[in-house]
Amino acid sequence: MTSTGTTTAPHVPVLVSEVIAALALHEGETAVDGTFGAGGYTRAMLGAGAGRVIGFDRDPDAIESGRSLVPDPRLTLVNERFSLMDRVLAEHGISAVDAIALDIGVSSMQLDRADRGFSFQADGPLDMRMSKSGLTAAEFLNEADEAEIARVLKDYGEEPRARAIARAIIAARPVERTAELAAIVRRAAGFRPGQKSDPATRTFQAIRIHLNAELDELEQGLEAAERALKPGGRLAVVTFHSLEDRIVKRFFRERSGGTPAGSRHRPVQTDPRLPTFQRVAKPVSPTERELAGNPRARSARLRSAIRTSAPAWKGTVQ
After folding, report:
1. CA distances from 188 to 160, 168, 192, 208 (A)
2. Under a CB-based contact definition with an 8 Å cutoff, are residues 62 and 37 in contact?
3. Based on the number of CB atoms within 10 Å of its own CB, is 317 exposed (0-12), middle (13-18) or buried (19 or more)?
4. How confident is the model at residue 13, as a pLDDT?
5. CA distance 203 to 156
6. Three state DSSP letters for 251-301
7. Checking phi first, is residue 257 left (phi over 0); if not, alpha (psi -120 to 50) or beta?
8. What is the pLDDT of residue 3?
């Protein structure tokens, strides 16, 4: 996720200095920016001496604008999901890389464009598709039943009034615009102007995550990064809400040989597989100075680790 920023680029990535420090790039190394967006991390990687950067983004608009945004011969842009990075890297003749950065969630470029339908700050069509293909938010809301909509809102938005909101959406169909949906949610949730948080935020987050299968993509992307990194390679992941952060935290804990505390009902079970990562630091959050210029960064959290020489695990994150 990125934020409105400097005059040299339309957006500045969150925790960019901390991410670059975690990647610890050396001159000439190969790095992956798994979530290219507006190219902020890529610029920083190139500025830190990377010999080559492969930038991934499933959004074709990001790739198209990136070709002129970051005109550097060391950069290769790929319009693909980052969960396929190891396969795509192999197709480009790259067997392994030295560093990978992942900035999870929706970008400010997407949020700030009303026609993409990710935000209710400006009215637009209910779209929310990162890849600009597949089911739109409007199609989902107008075709799914009440139970399915409620499940999505509860699972991906942690919405306590999921059932009431789903019922209100069903009653108001067809729903086609972001402003319509936000108004429906606010009425159903009993929102009053001046309240600290807008309940529409949770609903929009939940629908977006569902449509783009973001949590599955994150789990698969972490495994792809594990396969793509050289021994000693660095992985830095920035998340923006608890659902994402729990996945990253669990992945690093398991892959570094950590296990949750046991009990008399469920004894600790050690995993026979060798640790594939070494955690190097505690999670990092934005400073007050960064938050002053970018309120959207408030919930951001950076976790990082170093790849060991152990073979990648098979299977998915549990």
Report:
1. 11, 6, 11, 20
2. yes
3. middle
4. 84
5. 8
6. HHHHHCCCCCCCCCCCCCCCCCCCCCEEECCCCECCCHHHHHHCHHHCCCE
7. left
8. 37
Tokens in use for 71? 């005109």
In this structure, the number of other CB atoms found within 10 A of the CB of residue 308 comes to 18
Q: How far apart are CA 209 and CA 215, in angstroms?
A: 7
Tell me if 2-109+214-307 shares its fold with 132-211: no
pLDDT at 7: 33
Cα→Cα distances 35→14, 149, 227, 288, Å: 13, 28, 17, 25
Task: Give the CA radius of gyration of the chain.
Answer: 20
Going from N- to C-terminal start, the domains of the chain cover 2-109+214-307, 132-211
Specify the CATH superfamily of domain 132-211. Putative methyltransferase TM0872, insert domain (1.10.150.170)
Sites in the chain below the pLDDT cut of 50: 1-10, 261-262, 317-318
Task: Specify the pTM.
Answer: 0.90
Residue 283, judged by CB atoms within 10 A of its CB (0-12, 13-18, 19+), counts as middle
CATH architecture of 2-109+214-307: 3-Layer(aba) Sandwich (3.40)
14 and 286 Cβ atoms separated by less than 8 Å: yes
